[in-house]
Known about the structure:
Layout: H1 4-7, E1 15-19, H2 24-40, E2 43-50, H3 57-70, E3 74-79, H4 88-106, E4 111-113, H5 118-131, H6 135-138, E5 144-146, E6 151-153, H7 161-170, H8 187-202, H9 206-235, E7 236-237, E8 240-242, H10 243-246, H11 251-262, H12 275-285, E9 291-296, E10 300-305, E11 308-313, E12 322-324, E13 328-330, E14 336-339, E15 350-353, E16 363-365, E17 372-374, E18 381-383, H13 384-390, H14 395-398, E19 403-405, E20 411-414, E21 418-419, E22 432-436
Parallel strand pairs: 1-2, 1-4, 2-3, 4-6
Antiparallel strand pairs: 5-6, 7-8, 8-11, 9-10, 10-11, 12-16, 13-14, 14-22, 15-22, 16-19, 17-18, 19-20, 20-21
Amino acid sequence: xxxxxxxxxxxxxxxxxxxxxxxxxxxxxxxxxxxxxxxxxxxxxxxxxxxxxxxxxxxxxxxxxxxxxxxxxxxxxxxxxxxxxxxxxxxxxxxxxxxxxxxxxxxxxxxxxxxxxxxxxxxxxxxxxxxxxxxxxxxxxxxxxxxxxxxxxxxxxxxxxxxxxxxxxxxxxxxxxxxxxxxxxxxxxxxxxxxxxxxxxxxxxxxxxxxxxxxxxxxxxxxxxxxxxxxxxxxxxxxxxxxxxxxxxxxxxxxxxxxxxxxxxxxxxxxxxxxxxxxxxxxxxxxxxxxxxxxxxxxxxxxxxxxxxxxxxxxxxxxxxxxxxxxxxxxxxxxxxxxxxxxxxxxxxxxxxxxxxxxxxxxxxxxxxxxxxxxxxxxxxxxxxxxxxxxxxxxxxxxxxxxxxxxxxxxxxxxxxxxxxxxxxxxxxxxxxxxxx
Length: 437
């Protein structure tokens, strides 16, 4: 018996965006939410992405739209017209989550729910063990992820795919099977077909062991991150690694430091980077050559110069700027930030400030090493680097993305991405409204 209320604490008038593929997992999630919709007066938005690689995709999207109309659900969809990344799954995931987040803000939702289940977690952990990762990567993914303005929730993590398939059959819910899930060319499919049956034969409830394993690694990762951050202060000189100080650190911390530095250039799960790349950097650091370099994926270069190591892009120079804001600023990325009189918009492209809580003039600049922002609605601050990663900002855009600070260096806004604690609600007291176009 699947009881979604035991898995997550719902509140009256929750607004939920639900990622739905039309497969058995996501159709089960939609049905479970429909059964409690009236009880909690939920606003449900079904978000569907047509990946445009199978003939059946259009049929599935049409069915899902009809299903939503029949059940009085809001339906939002998009079609991925083209792909440019060599890693299809990674690019598709990034596009999906961009789309989902846009809907979260459009409907002022507090949750994004996906139908990830226990088998998905097992597959993810096993794949990362084989590929190589750090503690955080080995933990797979979390049941609840705090994104600041909303939470990503995976309420079906305690259940298996078999249990969800049984549920939709017993409830007579129509669903579609993605034929690509059976193709051995995809790594995840091979793990699903070969590894999971073996593990489940040993223990049908093995996913609970993986959930516990994930939580243990997650807690350990939090502790390691604190130690790594202390070490970073000892070994970094601006954006350059001091090899003399680096070599004094514990070998495991050295590994974590390099993994962290690489995260500046790649996605949050470092899908393009494996242990062999970390080993190559170690070989570079400890080589006898005073000046040398190695090439990494996506045209990133690790450059050793005597006692310093720097990671940089081979294709372009970093664009940096610092501009005092008056009424309007034209940015190198062809956008503008301007002061306006009024607006009903409440998206991340608008920032409302009270001049008595900040020190004027405002400055628009590019990011700096160690930048942190006190997040609106979050008790504490978050690294700007991590905000960029969370929002899936491509690595070639992060270095030139505008950041608005006051004259004391407090980050008050990352235009188009995230609001700080200084941002005011429409009903609060404020005398400055900024717009990012």
